[in-house]
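Figure 2 data, in text form.
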Amino acid sequence: MESLFCDELLQEIFLRLPPPSSAAVSLVSRRWHRLLRSSTTSLSLHFPPPYDPTTIASFSSFLKQHQFLHSLAVAGGEDPILLAVADSCPNLRYLRFTSPPISQFSLCTLSNSCFHLSSIAITVSRAPLCLNWLPHFKSLKSLSLFLTNPSTESSNSELNDDVFDSDAELKLESLLLCGVKAGDYEIGYIWKNCKNVKKLQLKSCESVGDFSSFSGFLRFSSCLQELELRTCRSIVDVVVLTLAESSLSLDSLLIYDGGSREGLLQFINQSNNSLRKLDLRLPLDLDNSHFIALSENLNFRGLISLRLQSCCLVTGEGIKALCRAISDDLEELTLINCDVVERESGLLTTLGQNLKKLRKLDLSYNDLLLDKELVSMLISCDHLVELKLRGCGRLTNLALASVAKCCKQLQHVDITYCKSMDVEGVEDFVWNSPRLRRVEIEQGKISEAARAWASYRFIEVVS
């Protein structure tokens, strides 16, 4: 039977199999094992020490057996491991290498061997920080840099002046920087030479560089479409206010764990950006004044996604005002761990009545949310395709039955850690949800009958 299938056909079949099937396929025969490796396009590996020559050679030999490998994630490893990747994976497109800082020599070697690399995520040292390897990656579109080690006493700008004099344009479209500090002058090279970045992510950053670096950022940010600021309290105000003045293209804004009430309010009042997505997790920096300002700025009337987490100081008045203003377009609403949901009776009912186009709703970790509050909202939300109720411990089988009854278009539901729902309620829900394609639930809460029905209907069960 095995001889009936040519190598090319088997490889095509293997490419279409789900990842969990790989272990079983590799045990069928040596031929299948060889063809599986040669058809694998993505690998995720953990590589603990020691990194002796024998281990490196074995690793290189293993990689060479995956001739179509396009995506590789390696946790652990040092320069010798990266050099083995450079030697063994000429067709690599995506590389994530979470390890100790990588040397400039290894990165230059990688650029000379892997011409097609379009996405790299690596750790680099700031002692000293050197970025003159970047222009060698001609196909690079996405870069994630994690900066580590304290800055040296010497001036990095003096050590690497040639970096800043270079006019080599970087073709980056997506950029993530983590751990930037005030002395990291070389970051200015990125701001200066990136003309096409559409998405910028800053994590745990104290600065965007020195003054000249920041000036480059002013020019760079004028074409920015997506911005994410996570734990960047010291720079949030200056970044968002700069965008309010210089950018007209910003489409999506995320701010987590750091900001100021005054700075955010000023951004909202001054911004001319027509935001489509807004994601905020600012427990002590967000209040009703921000929502009133959002509702009054006509540039925000086109919001299609509003995500709020841990909004301790917001009341129903602010949320209602904003949702009334953006009701014509809003498709996604997230209120995670927002005690206003539990504190103000009738809030969800009003939101459901106003948001007729809502397709995605996330009310996760509102532990005191009751059945009647949820059901009163869902009666008006007949276009929902995704519903997340993770960690809503007071919701019972009654709420689950109402979801199946009201939300006939529902395709994805997350009811993990809903401790008041039981096996019987989950079984009835799976049985009575005609368009369901994915359900997230604890292993012990889905019966064998429900699992069999889910398999028959091609419903993915995630435990």
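Caption note: Confidence is low (pLDDT under 50) at residues 151-165.
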